[in-house]
Amino acid sequence: MPKLSAAIRHSVAFTLNGVPRTVEVEPRTLLTDALRHGLGMTGTHVGCEHGVCGACTVAIDGAMARACLTLAVAAEGCDLRTVESLAPAPGRLGVLQAAFKRHHALQCGFCTAGILMSLDTYLRRHPNPSREDLTLVIGGHLCRCTGYAPIVAAALDAAAELRGTSEHPEDAAHA
Amino acid sequence: MGIQGERFIRPSAERVEDAALLSGGGRYIDDLGVRPGTLHAAIVRSPHAHADLLSVDKAAALSLPGVAAVITGADLVGVTAGLVPALRVSVDARAIAVDRVRYVGEPVAIVVAADRYRAEDGADLVNVRYRSRPAVVDPEAALGEGAPVLHEDAGSNLMSDRRFRYGDPDAAFAAAAHSLAVTVRYPRNTGSPMECYGVVAEYDPHEDAYDVLANFQGPFSIHAVMARALKVPGNRLRLRTPPDSGGSFGVKQGVAPYAVLIGAAARIVGRPVKWVEDRLEHLAGSVSATNRVTTLTAAFDGEGRVTALDWDQLEDCGAYLRAPEPATLYRMHGNMTGAYAIPHVRIRNRVVLTNKLPTGLVRGFGGPQVYYPLERLMQRIARHLGLDPLEVIRRNLIPADAFPYRTATGALYDSGDYQRALDDAARHGGLADLLDRRDAARAAGRLYGIGFTAAVEPSVSNMGYITAVLTPAERAKAGPKNGAQSTATVTLDPVGTVTVQVASVPQGQGHRTVLAGIVADVLGIPAAQVRVTTDLDTAKDAWSIASGNYSSRFAAAVAGVAHLAATRLRDKLARIAGAQLNIRAEDLVFGGGRVSSRTNPDASLPFARVAATSHWSPGLVPDDVGAAIRETAFWTPPELTAPDAEDHVASSLCHGFIFDFCGVEVDRATGKLRIDRYVTMHDCGVILHPGMVEGQVRGGFVQALGAAVYEELVYGEDGAFLSGTLADYLLPTATEVPDLRILHVESPSPFTPLGAKGVGEGNCMSTPVCLANAVADALDLDNVDLPLTPAKLRALVAEADEPPPPAGHRSAAPAAKAGDRTLRGAGATVVTASPEAVWALLLDPDVLASVIPGAHGVNKLSDTHFTADVTLGVGPVKGRYAADITLSDLDPPRGATLTGTVSGGLGDGGGTGRVTLEPDGTGGTRIGYTYEAAVGGKVAAVGGRLLDGAARVVIGGFFAALARRAGGADRTGPLRRLLAPLLALMGIKS
Ligand code: FES
Ligand code: FES
C-alpha cells in the first residue's frame, strides 16, 4: 500500500452495494465516517467506535467487518455491502429483513443494521446453521432493546426460508 | 369505559416503524442534515475526580487550522446558569466546570471546529492545569467527619435529610416478636442505549432565541430547567427531537446539560454547532443510576407476617444535584411496602453528593434500589424462621379484595390479584419441577438455589411526587404540584386522511404502530390510513411537563389520550354526517371506511368525505359543532393528587404486579452463575400489543441480567473512573441470555382509559434481587451484593464451604479489594557496564531521552529533578504526557528512589520506584527495580484491563534499551532507566 500524506485528502474508490463510488478522505478517516458523512449512507451506525458493539458491521469482500475499526483508505478497490443493499427493491424487504419484522426483532433499530449484515454475510456461507451457530454470530453484537431472543428466532426463520429460495444467487460466486 | 368491543389489540400487527429501520432508512440525530456552516464540537473533560481548575491554555488548539473556538466554563458564566434541582441547595449545577472539577468526565472546555476530526485534534491540544484535591466516592464516607466537601457553600455533602412516619411504627416494633435488618449497597449502573447523545443547536441573537435539536426523551419539565439554564424564557427555547432515537431507557433525559452547553457554544461562535457524544464520553459523562446504601428493618411475627418496616436510605447522586434528582429516591415513595399489606412504616431519606458522575433517569428508576433490600429481607425472614420463602411472600401479599388499595405511604394501587398471579406462575412456570431439579442438583453436591421476588411495578409518575423531598411547610409555600398531563392531537387533512401527533418521544417502543391502530379503530378506517408522528417540536406541538417517554407511561396514559382525542373528533364527525344523512349522530357507526346508519346500511357516507367536510364545505357543518379538523386532548388522572400534609405520596397512577422465580447454579470452581430457568409473571392490565409487551419484558429482563451479573460503573477509591469502554462495562450478549418464560394475568386498571398499565421497567426492579435470592439460596448466604460476578461468587463459595479444590486448581484467591488499582511490578536485568557507569547513565538526560520509550526530551532541572515529554499508548489510548520525576534516597552507585507524576489530556498518574544496582561479579551490573503506581483519567477508564501488561512492556522496554546502551562501549544513561519505571507507570496510564 502506498504511503499516504496526512496533510491532504485522498480519493478512495470502491464498489458500494454494486455501484462504483469514490470518496475523498483523510488517511485517518474511519470507514464509518466515510460511508455516513462522506457518502450519506447513514444506515451503518456507530455505537462505540471501539469494535465491541457491532452496530457498524458491513461486508467487505464478502466478509463481515467492523467499519469503525477500518480506515476508509483501506477499502480501496474493495467490494463493500451495507444494510442499504438488503432490500430487493425500494419499499420491499428481503427475506432476512422481513423475518426481523415478523418476529419483532428490533425496537429502536440502532443495532439492527450491523446484525443484519453479520447474519446476511454468515448465511451466504452457512446455509444450514444451528440455533447455537446463529446465537454465536448474534453474540458478536450488542442490542440493548430486544433481549436477543426474537433476533435469534428471526435468524432461524430466515435461514429456513432462504434454503427454499434463491435470494443469494451470488452464493455460487463466493463458494 | 365505552370502548368495549373495539379492537385495539392486534396480536401480530407488524410495526410501521420497521421497514425503514431495517433498510438503513432510520432518521436518528446523526443522520439528519445540518445547515451549511454548521460547526462541530468536541468536549475536553476532566481526568480528575476532584481538583481545582487552575488554567486552560487555548493557544495551541486555536492555532490549529479549522478550530473556530475553545470555550471554557468561565466563558459561559454570563451566558448560562446552573440546572436547578427539585431541591433548593447551594450547588451550582452547571453543565461545565468553572473553577473546580468534581468528577472524572466533567466538561472543562468545548472545542468548536470545522469538522469533528479537527475538533478532537483541538481538544487534544487544550492544556488544562489542575491542582488535585482529595476525592470521596463512597456515600457513607462522604458524610464522615473530615470528608472532602464538594460544594462548600452547601456546608457539607448532605443535601437532604427527611424522616417520614406512617401508622405507628414504634409501637409495631416494640410489640413485634421478631425483627431483622438487611444492609444493601446497591451499585451504579446505567441503561447504555446503543445510540449516544447528540445535539445540534443554534442561536438567533435578534430574537434571543435558541433552536435545539437533541435526542432528548423527556420529561419535558426539564425544558423549563434548560430554558432557565440558557437564561431565556420558555418560548425562546425551541426544543426538537429527531424522528428516530436509538434507545434511551431513561438515560437520554441526561442530554439536557449538553443541550445547554452546545446551545451556549452556538451562541458564542455565532454559528450552528453539532455535537455527537462518543461511547467513552457516554460511559463517563452521561448519566448513571444512583448507588444507594439501605438498611431495612422489619418487625414480624412467628408466622413471618410483617407489621412494620424501617427504611434508612442513603442516596448517592454524584457530584451535582441536577433536575430531576433526587427523584430516584422518591419515585417509589408510595410503594415502599411493595406488594405487601404492611401498615406501619418509618423512612429516613438522605441525599449525599460524591465525586462521581451525576445521576438521572435509568430504566427502573428507584425500583431496583428499593426491591433489592425489600425482597432480600423477605427471604431472610423466611430463613430466620425456617419457613418457605414463597410462603412468607404469600402471607404478606395485599388481599385480592382490597383493591383499590391505599398503601401506608400514600399510593393508591389500582387493581390486582396477586395470589392468582402466584398460583398461575407456580403452575405454568413449573415451580415443582424446579424444586425437584434443586433437590437433584444438591444431592449431587452442586450449588443450586431458587429465588423468588414479588414486586409492584409503578407507572405513570405523578409529577408532584418529587416535592415529597420538601417538608410539608415548604410544599405549602411553593404551592401544590401534581398530575401527569398527557396529550395527543388528531388531524384530518383535506382529502380526509388522518394524522396523529403525540408528545411521547419514543426510542423504539413502537408507539406509532399502537396509536395508528387505536385511532383507526375509533374512526373505523384501516390502520394504514392513519399516519403517526412522534418527533416533537416544542414550538409547534402540544406538550406539557409530563410529556416524554419515561415511567412506562405510554400504554397507560398516551394511548388513552389518543383514544380520547380520536373519540372527540369522531363524535363531531358523527354530527356532521348525521346532518347530511338526516340521521341522529348516536345512530351512526364508523366502520369499513364509512360512516353509516346503525339500522340502514344504505344510508352512509365515505369516511374521507365526512372528514374533509370542514375543509371544503364548512357551510355543511352544523353551527354548534365547529370545525372538525384538529382535536388536541389533554388528560391527567384525578388520582394523582399532590403529597398531603402527612406526607402521603401518590407517586404513580398504575401498579402492575410481577412475580418472578428462578433456579440458578453456581460453579464451585469458577464462580460462574448459570441460570437454569427464569420465570416472570406479569400483570400489566390490558395488553395493547402482545408482541411489544413481550419485547419490553425481554429487553428489560436482559438489562436487569446485566445489572445483576455483568454491569457496574466502577470508580477507584480516588474517584478514577474504570469502566470507560464496552469491554469494561459489560452488556449481556445473545450467548448469556437464559431460558426465560413469560406469563401474564390481566387485571385491567380502572384508572386508565384503556385499562393498560406500564410494563417496561418491572424486570429491572424484580430480576436483580430474584437472582440474588437464588444465589443466596444456593450458597446459603445471609448477605450478597451486586453484581454477581464470577470472582465474587467464587470467593463466596470459598467462604461458604471451602471445598477441596478440583485437581489442578488452586483454591480461590480472595477477591481483590474493590477500587484498588495499584500497579505493582518488579524486574531485573544484567548489563555489562559497571554500576558506576550505569549510575552515570541514569543521571544523564540525553541518555534518558534515548532510552525512555516515547520520550521526546528530558530536561534536567537539577541533579535530582527531571521533566520529560512522553508519548505512551495503552490499548486504544495513545497520548502525550508531561512527566515530572525526582530522585531521592540516593545511594550512588547502589540505588535510588524515583518519585514521579505524569499528566496529560488522557489521564494522570503517580508512583514510586526503587532502582538498585549491584555488581554482578563479572564487571557488569545487575539492575533491579520495583515500582508501585496508580493512574487515573481516560487511560484508566478505557485501558484498565491493559495497564498491568502495558506497564510491563514500557518498563521492560526501558530496561532493554538501557541494557543496550550500558552494554556497549561507552553507553550511559541509567537514569533513564530509573525514570522508566515511573514513566512506564505513567505511560501505562497514558
Ligand atoms: S461502532 Fe463499530 S463496533 Fe461499535
Ligand atoms: S433494537 Fe435497540 S439496540 Fe437493538
Write a concise synopsis of the structure shown.
The complex is a heterodimer of chains A (about 180) and B (about 1000). With about 180 residues, chain A is of the alpha+beta class. Helices cover about 35% and strands about 15% of the residues of chain A.
Keywords:
heterodimer; A: alpha+beta; Ubiquitin-like (UB roll); DNA polymerase, domain 1; 2 domains; 5-stranded mixed β-sheet; globular; B: 990 residues; alpha+beta; Aldehyde Oxidoreductase, domain 3; Aldehyde Oxidoreductase, domain 4; 4 domains; 7-stranded mixed β-sheet; binds FE2/S2 (inorganic) cluster; Beta-grasp_dom_sf (chain A)
Query: Topology as H/E string of chain A?
Result: EEHEEEHHHHH
CATH superfamily of the largest domain in chain A: [2Fe-2S]-binding domain
**Helix share bin of chain B:** 25-40%
CATH arch. level architecture of the largest domain in chain A:
Orthogonal Bundle
Structural class of chain B: alpha+beta
Give the low-confidence spans of chain A.
169-175
Tell me the number of helical segments of chain B per DSSP (H or I, 4 or more residues long): 26
The helix/strand class of chain A is: alpha+beta
How many structural units, i.e. domains of chain B?
4
Mean pLDDT level of chain B: 91
C-alpha geometry of chain A: globular
- Multimeric state of these chains? heterodimer
CATH topology of the largest domain in chain B: Aldehyde Oxidoreductase, domain 4
CATH names the topology of the largest domain in chain A as DNA polymerase, domain 1
The portion of residues forming beta strands of chain B comes to: 25-35%
Number of helices of chain A: 6
The largest pleated sheet of chain B is described as: 7 strands, mixed
